[in-house]
Known about the structure:
Layout: H1 14-17, E1 19-26, H2 32-37, E2 44-53, E3 58-66, E4 70-84, E5 87-97, E6 101-102, E7 111-114, E8 117-120, H3 122-126, H4 129-142, E9 148-151, E10 158-166, E11 170-175, E12 178-184
Antiparallel strand pairs: 1-2, 1-12, 2-3, 3-4, 4-5, 4-6, 5-9, 5-10, 7-8, 10-11, 11-12
Amino acid sequence: MEAVNPTRAPIEATQLLDGNWILLYTAFSELLPLLAAGATPLLKVKSISQSIDTASQSIVNSTTLSGPFADLSFSASATFEVRSPSRIQVEFKEGIVQPPEIKPSVDLPADIDVFGQRISLSPVQQSLGPLQDLVANISRTISGQPPLKIPIPGNRSSSWLLITYLDEDLRISRGDGGLFVLARQGSPLLEQ
C-alpha cells in the first residue's frame, strides 16, 4: 500500500491528516508489553488512538485499558515540527494519567481461559457484593479529581514519524521504533 500512496505530501494534506486515528496494528516493540497485558483475561485494551492537530502542530497519543473494576486512561501530549512533506519531528511534553473511571458494578466475564482450561467465575461473582460497595465508595472519593500530569524527560522525549500512506480512512506511519497502521475514527474500516 505504501508504494501506491495516493497522497504524495501527507503533512500538507491537513484535511486528511487532522483528526483522531485508532490503532489497528503496530510492530512498535515498546507497545508490545501493553498489548500483551491487554490480552489477559481480566484486562483489555479498550482503545489506542492518536489525535493530530496540524494547526497547533500537536499530537496526543491516548490509551484506555478496561479492567473488572475500572477503566484506566493515560495519554502523552507532544508538539511537532515539519521536516519534509511526509516527515515530522515529534517532541513529547507530558504524560497525563486520568483518574480511574470506576464501573458501577464489577464487570467479570462468566469464565476465563487459563492455560487451555475454562474456569468459571460465577462463584467469585456471587461473593462480590461487599466489594462492589467498596468500589462505589472509592468512585465517589476520586470522581472530579484532576488528572496527574508528568513531565517527560528530555532523553526520551524526541521521536520522528514518517507518513507513508494516507487517505480519508487509513494512515500508515513509520517511526523510530516501528510500523503503525491506523484508521480514522468513524471510518467503515473500524466496523470490519
